[in-house]
Amino acid sequence: MTTTETFNLLEPYEVAEETFVIPWALEAPPVGHFPMNSMVIRGAEPVLVDTGAPAVRPQWLEAAWSVVDPLDVRWVFLTHDDRDHAGNLLPVLAACPNATLLTTWFSIGRMADEWETPLNRCRFVNEGDTVDVGDRTLVAMRPPLFDNPTTRGLFDSKTNVLWSVDTFATNVPTPMPDIAELSADEFRDGQFFGGRLVSPWAAWLDSQKFQAVVDDIQRLDADVIAGCHSPVLRGPRIAEAFDLLRQLPDIPPWREFTQADLDAWMAAAEGSVPPEQPRPSDT
């Protein structure tokens, strides 16, 4: 297993047989860092799961192609159209001429304000749909928590890996490959913080209906849970994460940072923050 000592951002690491996470993270003062991951399944018909953020486009593409030759990629599973998931979609499609984009009708429409997705290369995948990718079957499902209505998670029935997208999001004190490295308190607080951050509507949920959704996902019996905004979950932490998830509807909403917080941060940082630079003229 990859350890913190051997872990570097944008260096893929194997989380299951032929399955690799491409890790990235954003500094998120004052709560530490937020993971920003994607995944590659290097099987008979290789699959990219999300396409990373445009902020690190060259490094992300280099990392992905270190795992798989882009000419071998057959599928690009886009969980949803947010920039941290779809930010490098067009360069990926250009580099992977043999790939089909697994997406949704609504995602195509939501991306149309920025680019035209080639429909002839798309296949719509809705909740419960399966995709045969040669040596395994992938199952699409809506995860319990999400911040975008088009979201679809992914379960690989061969390796029992669940890509949970934004469910189980957590802040971490420093980027790390495995959530077992968090203390029990850090793990609990991170699950409650991340869950309420990405899905503030959790406080409005009917608890009984939500439990049924969580039960359906837990019954997949995943051995590994990877996601965009969390280190990898394994072993006892999986059951713990589901237990914490079930509590979200009964927890008060997270109190968002206010202008007073920003004023205090700026005062504390006075003299160390460079003034905003003017943008280069377009003319």
UniProtKB/TrEMBL annotation:
Residues 35-229 form the Metallo-beta-lactamase domain. It comes from Kribbella caucasensis. It holds the Pfam family ODP. InterPro entries: Metallo-B-lactamas, ODP_dom, RibonucZ/Hydroxyglut_hydro. This is Metallo-beta-lactamase superfamily protein. It comes from the Bacteria.
